[in-house]
Amino acid sequence: MGTHRKTCEVVVVGGGPAGLTAAIALAAAGVATALVSRRPPAPDNRTTALLTGSVAALDALGVWNLAREHAAPLAAIRIVDDTARLIRAPEVLFRAEEIGLEAFGHNIENRHLVAALEARAAALAHLARFECGAARVAIGEDRVTIWLDNGEEIAAPLVVGADGRGSLCRAAAGIETETRSYPQAALTVNLAHARPHAGISTEFHTEAGPFTLVPLPGNRSSLVCVVEPLEAERLAGLDDATLAEETERRAHSILGRITVAAERGVFRLATETARAFAHSRVVLVGEAAHVMPPIGAQGLNLGLRDAATVAELVADAREDPGAPALLARYDRQRRLDVTSRTLAVDLLNRTLLSDVLPVQGARGFGLYLLDRIGPLRRAVMREGVMPLAAQPRLMRGELP
Ligand SMILES: Cc1cc2nc3c(=O)[nH]c(=O)nc-3n(C[C@H](O)[C@H](O)[C@H](O)COP(=O)(O)OP(=O)(O)OC[C@H]3O[C@@H](n4cnc5c(N)ncnc54)[C@H](O)[C@@H]3O)c2cc1C
Predict the structure, then answer these.
(1) Taking a C-beta distance cutoff of 8 angstroms, is the pair 205, 83 a contact?
(2) Is residue 321 lining ligand 1, measured as CB closer than 6 Å?
(3) What fold, for 5-72+110-179+271-365+387-396?
(4) Which residue's CA lies nearest to atom 16 of ligand 1?
């Protein structure tokens, strides 16, 4: 054993929202956990619509009380067909109260969410922090050894790879990914506006992709505008006043006069799914396991369910937390949830892009049915916020 080597039960690599949540959930369950996190190169200006299960989980972990003042409830979701096509779908408004909820979830800026997670992580006795990068990951028979940028070594029987899209842990475990790219990019920018949003998130479906306004506290909203990559770059390069005008035009002025914040983000749209979510003493969570387009607010909600699942399985395990049986159980439990969400997002995006008349008709007819048939409408709303696929206890507010 090297002089600097430390041991613990689980090492989490990556301190984004998924990794922080996994580390907190593990430590809260009494598991000796180390979190290795390198600061991200650029600040994150994205926001996340956290669905009810995610909010319940963060509440149970003692994070939500640190975050809630920065979050806006989503009381309703409106879908508007803004295409100029022959067959257009009716406007549909889904209200959370129809399924007995005050809100479908809450929208929060990632920087506030991460700050709340950081503050909670700092207060947990079973959580050791290493504020540097993992440089090398070596998988042995009964443990994984991680060499850090600062020369230290940590070893544990299980590693949670929460190190994002280019995951080092995933590569070390020899897990490949399936990727699909789309001819689109998302521009993200936060806005202030003259009229209140009334807790309604509005999605304009255009031929290039969705243009989505999601409420933030006060008269503010976040925008995710999916367009062709060159158009996203053009919009991101506009001065504040011109971008504000362009945004107001695309939003049909429903929020009145708009001003835009300085920070903008441009993200190429892609789907990337790991062929295995766990292998060789490595469990993948968040974007290390699955990247999906920012359509329908699924990405991080899946990441939080990954984090809750691994914490629950490790807390319930009597012995080796990196045993093949536990890894197989994790992979099985996450597979249906991730693949069904990836397919749904892909399908919606493709029907928007399609110029084929029957496809447009099917989308319009689908929305028409959702608008008219109460039980179907409520079933779809419930599945959106509370998926039928097996859910970890934490999503119901119970600690692992
Ligand atoms: C435009 C847009 C809008 C979105 N909107 C929503 C939404 O409304 N709802 C939703 O649920 N999801 C949404 N998502 C998805 C969501 O943002 C992501 O799922 C989420 O940010 C991923 O979190 P993560 O912790 O898995 O990864 P990341 O945030 O990428 O974190 C990975 C971390 O690992 C660190 N790291 C990497 N390598 C190492 C290493 N070797 N050693 C140590 N640390 C390392 C990185 O520095 C980083 O901090 C959106 C995505 C986009 C692009």
Answers:
(1) yes
(2) no
(3) FAD/NAD(P)-binding domain (3.50.50)
(4) 300
